[in-house]
Amino acid sequence: MKIAHHPDTATLMAYAAGTLDEAFAVAVSCHLEVCDECRNSVRWAAALGGGFLCEETGTTPLSEGAFGRLLERISATSETPHTAPDRVSLAGDGVTRGTPRALSGYLDTDLELIRWKRIGPGVWQKPISLSPGASSSLRLLRIAPGRGVPEHGHGGQEITLILSGAYRDEIGYFGPGDVADLDEHVEHKPQVVSDEDCICLAATEKPTRFKGIAGRLLQPFVGI
Q1: What is the Cα–Cα distance from 199 to 145, expressed in whole angstroms?
Q2: Domain residue ranges in the chain
Q3: How many CB atoms lie within 10 A of CB 77?
Q4: Taking a C-beta distance cutoff of 8 angstroms, is the pair 143, 162 a contact?
Q5: Taking each helix axis from N to C terminus, what angle separates 9-17 and 36-57, rounded to the nearest 10 degrees?
């Protein structure tokens, strides 16, 4: 299955500049582990940032239109399409099996052994502790086949990385490795369409805004 959805250009630029808050940086790092296209984009963004620094210090001026050309390169499709595995699984030295490297340091067990907290019919979560100074939130969500999250919007940016399974919403189909990079203008209702549970890593800037009364009543208890 090909990775069809990637972080926005602005998100990759912020990641390269080191300005993403912790939860978003972790989510993007996990995506970069399986996406050659976005890794190359981050390298270009980092190189451009170094160029701007040189320009400010008067050492090496940037050529005219360099920023625009970078955005074109970031937006362009890689010449060699990247194929994602059926689930994000990066076993290796010092890495919890089935867990992305960037996430493994935040967990004390494998994804398959996590003690989930039920927050609704067929929906579980695992909040992930971040550094004291982090202003964003990070959690794992597990949703059973045929189940979904009630229709909702976002108080700010939200990045969701699919680790296993798949869901579909108003935007499209999201499978392993795909990223939903959404802002406060997007409302959607994800529904799991895979035969297995869909496990996602979700980074949020502010609490979710549920549209239905049931979701709004449950929100204080589930903490999303």
Answers
A1: 11
A2: 9-75, 101-222
A3: 8
A4: no
A5: 60
Q: Which residues of 158-173 are buried (b: 16+ CB within 10 A; e: fewer)?
A: bbbbbbbbbbbbeeee
Please report the DSSP string for 148-167 in residue order. B--SEEESS-EEEEEEES-E
Q: Which two tokens stand for residue 153?
A: 């919007």
- Kindly report, residue by residue over 178-221, the tens digit of the pLDDT: 999 988 677 768 899 999 999 999 998 876 655 555 454 454 44
From 103, 99, 158, select the one nearest 130 (Cα to Cα): 103
Tell the burial category of 34 from Cβ atoms under 10 Å away from its Cβ (0-12, 13-18, 19+).
Answer: buried
Buried b or exposed e, range 82-100, using 16+ CB within 10 angstroms: bebeebbbbeeeebbebbb
Residues contacting 19, CB < 8 A, separation 6+: none
Return d(Cα 100, Cα 95) in angstroms, integer: 8
pLDDT tens profile 12-50 = 999 998 899 999 999 999 999 999 999 999 988 887 765
Task: Scan for tokens 């052994």, then name that residue.
Answer: 113
Domain 9-75 adopts which CATH fold? Arc Repressor Mutant, subunit A (1.10.10)
- 101-222 belongs to CATH 2.60.120.10: yes
- Would you say 215 and 41 are in contact if contact means Cβ atoms under 8 Å apart? no
Q: Which SS3 state, helix, strand or coil, does residue 128 take?
A: strand
